[in-house]
Amino acid sequence: METGGEVKRDMWGYAVVTSSDSCISAIDSYYHQVLSYGRNRAVILEGPLHDPDCVLANILAAYFLFHSDRSKSLSHLASASARLDHASSYEALVFEAVSSLLVDDRDDDVAIDLHFKLLKGYPKDLVSLKRAQLLCFYLGRPDVSLNLVEQVLGENQQESYIYGMLAFPLLELGRMADAERAANKGFDINKDDFWSQHALCHIFQYDCRFKEAVDFMEACSSSWNSCSSFMYTHNWWHVAVCYLEGHSPLQKVLEVYDNHIWKELQRSDADCEEVYLNALGLLLRVYVRGQIEQVGDRLKVLATILADQSNWHIEWLLDLLALWALSSTRQTKKAEDLLKAMKSRTYLMGRKKQQSMQRAILLAEALYEYGRGNYERAFECLGPDFDANDCKMIGASDEQLDIFNEVWFSVLLNTGHVSKAIEVIEKRVNKREGIPFLWSLLEKAYATEGRVEASVAGEKAKALEIAYF
């Protein structure tokens, strides 16, 4: 195309129709912020200020604003559309791919196909790759995410960010050895590649190498101050979970919560909802382990904040965790309102998406009942064959989802489904045998049935508790 205006090149070397060096600089800065999980992705809004007619700057600004300011997002979308005839071929493909995401009833399959098309022609555009992988994450399709990154890998061999983007779908597919090689390669190229750091932590956690994960992440933590609220608190969430899983004293977990997760809210540029997400994910793990008395005040503070409806419907995972927080702190009416609102959201979806989200709604109902201590009803919602990995559509990694399996184990034991609890916990420890909490649950289940294996499971739990921290 390139039918009007001066042509400049972005950091990938692709043509952008603009006469403004400052506009290109804003676009390139945005690329860096996205790939480095930086705090200043809003820099893209400077692009249209420097050149209101730039299609690429406007469509990227529209995408950035879509969930926070729909009116301004649509304004930028209209500006990009109005100048599309003057755009470069690259800009036109970016517009086509991004605009497919900026509708309430979007067709996810179409959006993915458009990103495949874009990346086939312009494989160095790692921000479009990241955007497509994020979509795959919410669809629970790590296989498609891997296909996307493999399509462009040959053109990006020296790019550090590509290897973290390769590692994550590999680990979600259970290919841990391949994932570790990819993440290590990214980390070797760039020690401050936070996504490679994060992938390595996932791998260490999966292998129950909890002390190794803590030592590695804490050694990297001095570089995290530039991270977005989500990435900063999520990395510390991983550290806290490793302390908890490795049976470190709870005080270590709470030090991470207070000094790194909750303290993030003191920053003027904090994204509060991202902090709440990681804070709640940690407190639920503590709750399931029967230690809520020591964190009850923290949970009440969070629940009070999340009773405010302005914090609802930002992320499905946050809504689910908020639902548990509200019901467990006896804010029953607010919890009921949130649950109704979550159900209403699905009515606006297309049939395919609506059917997929039914599992999320059943999980929501179960968490509401679980928080109230109504374990029988929670069991009815989850059913006898629940697996949290079937709920990827809520936007959660395997590690984030694992807490819902632990909730299910607890529900099984509290409703007398002991044989089923033994079956699923045994299956879990065969896969990840280094978690003391699971062995303790198994000991409890064996003892309930009077089985001799109870003492063996108890000894295993105690041995692991000593070994880690």
UniProtKB/TrEMBL annotation:
It comes from the Eukaryota. CDD domains: StaR_like. Keywords: Repeat, TPR repeat. The keyword Repeat applies. SUPFAM superfamilies: TPR-like. The keyword Repeat applies. Belongs to the TTC38 family. This is Tetratricopeptide repeat protein 38.
